[in-house]
Amino acid sequence: MDTHPLISYKNVSIAFGKKSVLTDISFDLGKSEKIAVTGPSGCGKSTLLKAALGFVPFSGKIFVHDVEVTPHSIDAVRGSLGYIFQEPVLGADTVEDALYLPFTLKAHHSKMPDKDRLHALLDEFLLPPDILRHKAKDLSGGEKQRLALIRSLLIGHDLLLVDEITAALDALTRRKVVEHLLLPRYTLLTIAHDEQFVRQCNATLEIQAGTARLAASGAPA
Predict the structure, then answer these.
(1) For position 221, what pLDDT does the model report?
(2) Interatomic CA distance for residues 208 and 212, integer angstroms
(3) What does the pLDDT look like over 176-200, one tens digit per residue?
(4) Can you give the residue range of the structural domain that contains 8?
(5) CA–CA gap between residue 109 and residue 105 (Å, rounded)
(6) CA gap 27, 54 in Å, rounded
(7) Are residues 76 and 167 located together in one domain of the fold?
(8) Considering only CA atoms, which of 175, 205, 76, 98 is closest in space to residue 144?
(9) Cβ–Cβ < 8 Å for 150, 103
């Protein structure tokens, strides 16, 4: 397996004003690896992911696909991976419009997915076909996350940053989503409290008191 990292944090620290949130974080995420970020509420897990997307200021260096995250590179970095937050903004009135929204942009125009692929993903993640006609504002948090994930997969992203995607799901839906995310084709950095999901990842990045410790998990790389 190619062990060259797709994401690399090097001595990353994050502070808001005088309040230090994360200090001297370093780790690599290799191709096909899955790392679960764990720790108590408010410890900086979401902040850690947002740094790779340029949403929060940081010191140190972060690389995504060998591109250093800077104000000049951030559009390219964001376009090279999929990111699913706890409350995704779908950005359109209806679900169907939201799913096709990225493909109206020049960067993704040539990747327009066919309806069979779209409906196959809806079925895999236990979403009914008629959800396409629903208003995006009326969806539950779990539905929004699954749809944001589907949109990333339609674009073709294999590198995924995911924030607590299983928290609002029932057991069957959770299993379907986790099984898909654990496929070898995906490289995953995910915030997770679900102990079973965490154990299925290759490693755990545990955040405590602003520092992080990387430990192997039960799954093979």
Answers:
(1) 47
(2) 6
(3) 999 999 999 999 999 998 899 999 9
(4) 1-81+159-221
(5) 6
(6) 18
(7) yes
(8) 98
(9) no
Q: Residue 16: exposed, middle, or buried by beta-carbon count in 10 A (0-12, 13-18, 19+)?
A: exposed
In terms of domains, do 22 and 119 share one?
no
Task: Indicate the residue among 156, 171, 204 that finishes a domain.
Answer: 156
- 130 in the same domain as 192: no
Instruction: Please provide the DSSP assignment of 136-161 as one string.
Output: GGGS-HHHHHHHHHHHHHHHT--EEE
Work out the widest C-alpha separation in the chain, in whole angstroms: 52
Shared domain for 112 and 62, answered yes or no, is no
Do 20 and 51 belong to one domain? yes
Q: In terms of DSSP bridges, do strands 187-191 and 34-38 run parallel, antiparallel, or are they unpaired? A: parallel
Domain boundary among 156, 180, 195: 156
- Is residue 9 domain-shared with residue 53, that is, in the same domain? yes
Q: Which two tokens stand for residue 60?
A: 């140190």
In tens, the pLDDT along 135-181 reads 998 999 889 999 999 999 999 999 999 999 988 888 999 999 999 99
What are the pLDDT digits (tens) for 30-81?
999 999 999 999 999 999 999 999 999 999 999 999 999 999 999 999 999 9
Q: What is the spatial distance between Cα 191 and Cα 209, in angstroms, rounded to a whole number?
A: 17
> Cβ contacts of residue 164 below 8 Å, gap of 6+?
86, 191, 192, 193
> Structural domain tally of the chain?
2
